[in-house]
Amino acid sequence: MRADIAEQPARVREALVAVGRQSDALAAVLRGASQVVLLGRGSSRSASTYAATAFRTLTGLPAFTTSPAHLAWSDSVETLDGTVVIAVSQSGESTEVVAAAARARDLGGRLVVVTNSPSSTLAGLGGPELTVDFHAGAEVAVPATKSFTASLACLLGIALAGRPALLDEATDALPALMADVLDHAGARFDVGDADNLVCAGEGFAESVGEEGAIKLRETLRRPVAAFETSEFLHGSINSVDSATTVIVAAADPLGGRLGDQAAVGARARGARTVSIGASPTSLADCHVRVPEAPAHWAPFLTVLPLQIAALEAAVARGVDPDQPAGLSKVTLIADAASP
After folding, report:
1. Which three-class secondary structure state does DSSP give residue 262?
2. Gap between the terminal Cα atoms of the chain
3. Where in the sequence of the chain do the CATH 3.40.50.10490 domains occur?
4. Labelling 71: which of 92, 177, 224, 318 has CA 20 to 30 A away?
5. 3-class SS at 83?
């Protein structure tokens, strides 16, 4: 896992360069689209949460995530005419994502596949022109790290397919900022002794709250809650106590202000608080500062300290972070459409 984490700047650059070569075809698919629907599970769902915000913000298209199982096996969807459906899967073999992608095509959706396995079943549904490769390489650890940020890069590249200058800017500058975070000793915080954990983020950072919670669940084998920061403030904050560590990621000043509210409220209930963001100050007990960057770059930076924290907490607890008991790299669930 440590080696996978260290590769991320190079892998993100490679993914951004590669998706840039497909920009013309991807931009053509987005032209005339009425909406974008994103499919993913696990870390690919966190990436889809990021992408939905990116499409709404950077293209103006309505965009949202939906349950692959619901799309695949329910009877409630009648047509996807005019919809671009983006299916995200590291393995390209997740049962429900493959089934949902196939049904999306049957319902008239235009399918784009984002995967680390260009020879997979899912990639076969998308076809070579509309399959975007993570270019993350083989990921040794079961918990996704470099495949997550590489998938973010692919999704950002799709959203910027019609804006090549912004894509070039990200390709040139973002990997170096990621390397700065990984090289900075201050991008570390300890959750090794936390009994209960909460991760939160707002806007572009909502995906970081989701993904951070997944990494901590997988490596520590403990339940970890994930919230939009503003949703956490609506009642759920009252569930924390002195056995809880609350981690809040921010991508922009609004997220920082909401994070400060969450930190103050959680600390008043006895919780330890950690913030991750570009703000020079924070009201949390521990603040991990990352470089200033556009909001749509922020998740690439703020997720890194969470990955490291999950790795180091697992090692401190004597748990193997690479092969958590009970987990495998590809999750297959039974076809729920079958009786």
Report:
1. helix
2. 39
3. 2-183, 196-316
4. 224
5. strand
**CATH pick for 196-316 out of 1.20.1250.20, 3.40.50.20, 3.90.800.10, 3.40.50.10490:** 3.40.50.10490
Residue 317: both structure tokens together: 């607890």
Q: What's the whole-number average pLDDT of the chain?
A: 95
For the domain covering 2-183, report its CATH number.
3.40.50.10490
State how far the Cα of 53 lies from the Cα of 56, in Å rounded to an integer: 5
DSSP-based three-state secondary structure for 327: coil
Residue 31's Cβ-side half-sphere holds a number of Cα atoms within 13 Å equal to 9
Reduced to 3 DSSP states, what percent helix, strand and coil does the chain have, rounded to the nearest 5? 50, 15, 35
Over the stretch 96-126, which tens digit does the pLDDT of each residue have? Answer: 999 999 999 999 999 999 999 999 999 999 9
Helix 23-30 with 146-159: angle, nearest 10 deg = 60
- 287 pLDDT above the threshold of 60: yes
CA 104/CA 82 separation, integer angstroms: 11
Query: 268 or 331: whose pLDDT is higher?
Result: 268
List 247's β-bridge partners, or say none. 199, 274
Residue 118: alpha-carbon gap to chain centroid: 20
